[in-house]
Amino acid sequence: MASVLEDPSLERHFKGHKDAVTCADFSPNHSQLATGSADTNLMIWSLNPKGKALRFVGHRGDITCVQFSPCGSLVVSASKDKTVRLWTPRFNGESTVFKAHMAPVRCVNFSHNGQRLVTASDDKSVKVWTVHRQRFLYSLNQHTNWVRCARFSPDGRLIASCGDDKTVRLWDTGTRQCINTFTDCGGSVTFVDFNASGTCIASTGSNNTLKIWDIRTNKLLQHYQVHSAGINSFSFHPSGNYLISASTDSTVKILDLLEGRLIYTLHGHKGPVLAATFSRRGDLFASGGSDSQVLLWRTNFDSFNYKEVLKKHRSRVEPEPAPHLNDIFPRSPHLHTTQASSIQISPTVADTQTGDPHIVEMGPALFPYMQDHESHRGKVQRSRGGSESRPAPGEEGQTTSRTYALEERSSLPNGFSATLEHIVQQLDVLTQTVAVLEERLSLTEDKLRECLDNQARLVVQASRAEERAADSESQASSM
């Protein structure tokens, strides 16, 4: 089926972040790589060796998740500053801010058609948003502790979420109900995702294990215990045949899911590895760690043409399709442990093909908005003022701003800047007040609607009773 070529190799490394790299994602057109960091900055790296890198400044807390939209025209990022931002990954692009949750946002994910966003937060909620109108839609609220991750299924009909309540939950986006809960996780669950066909989910947690479940039969298919510390993230290969995992034990592991075994252990990061992701074509993957480095690897170990496989995955949208070769895993849910035969790869990071790219900084413009002493260490973040849009029920508010290169920023007197900052703070208070009032109004409207529905049912029942009584009287008179 697939022919083995050679071992994975380190292609490039990227330096530009000043703190741990927490997340990464490849663009659909295979030309860029987005990474987020605890230094609060979003980086867009060009995969062209001569291309420039873009640094986007705007978040005021650690970035926890980044993802390109399916068409590649947008990048979304989540942060511990309780916001989600939509970026345009080009010079002088625009950014839109969602004040999404009441606590740090751990994860954000596009739906398959790019029209929805799902976010997960330490406020124990999962929220769904519309991208086009940039509005809040609804919340999913059955988790009892911090929610670490939430992902759409490939067909967009399901959402998988996990968290510190030691559960993985499956939600139906149509009914907005939890349709299944996996509790055999053994600890806090840090990451969850669907395979390419949407028939399985994998989850990882603080107990150093990775589990794969068949969501059609609700059975545990595979259980891997190959890391010596917690697993922070993982990524399915587009074919569904392989999986890479990033761990606090400073390694990246590559698993062969068809054979059910560990095939490679990659060393290269100095410290915990926090992110690992395959490219859309599967020929590259990237890893990021606490050493502030981004390593770009070439897959090499499989030459199968996945275009036909991916076409079949996209065409199989029924909830219970016929079995497919790439969905068949080992029949029994046995434990897979580290094997001595797995190949250890320890590349020398300094011996990569290209040097560090030139970095162009992008950021909010016009006036100083907030100084982040912890992450920026004295660097002033600038934000363009604008009219705040009225928040929908359940959201705290949204603001929109344009971003420009740092050299285009203008300076204003300190007194004027302080006054503007005070005004913005007061507007934030007003926005939160309006959000609370609108939420209470929506609850009142729901109760009123429920009362009207009950009244309508009573009227229908009364009319039916009258009809039955009239029928009885007519029958009695005819007798």
UniProtKB/TrEMBL annotation:
Cellular component aspect of the GO annotation: centriole; ciliary basal body
Species of provenance: Albula goreensis
Residues that span the membrane, as ranges: none
Family: Belongs to the WD repeat POC1 family.
Gene3D superfamilies referenced in this protein's UniProt entry, alphabetically: YVTN repeat-like/Quinoprotein amine dehydrogenase
Name of the protein in its database record: POC1 centriolar protein homolog B
SUPFAM superfamilies noted in UniProt: WD40 repeat-like
Taxonomy, superkingdom: Eukaryota
Region of interest (Disordered), residue spans: 317-341, 374-404
Coiled-coil ranges from the UniProt annotation: 420-454
Entries under PANTHER family matching the protein: POC1 CENTRIOLAR PROTEIN HOMOLOG B (PTHR44019:SF1), WD REPEAT-CONTAINING PROTEIN 55 (PTHR44019)
Keywords on record: Coiled coil, Cytoplasm, Cytoskeleton, Repeat, WD repeat
GO biological process: cilium assembly
Location of this chain's protein in the cell: Cytoplasm, Cytoskeleton, Microtubule organizing center, Centrosome, Centriole
WD repeats: 14-48, 56-87, 98-139, 140-181, 182-223, 224-265, 266-297
InterPro entries: WD40/YVTN_repeat-like_dom_sf, WD40_PAC1, WD40_repeat_CS, WD40_repeat_dom_sf, WD40_rpt, WDR55/POC1
CDD domains, sorted: WD40
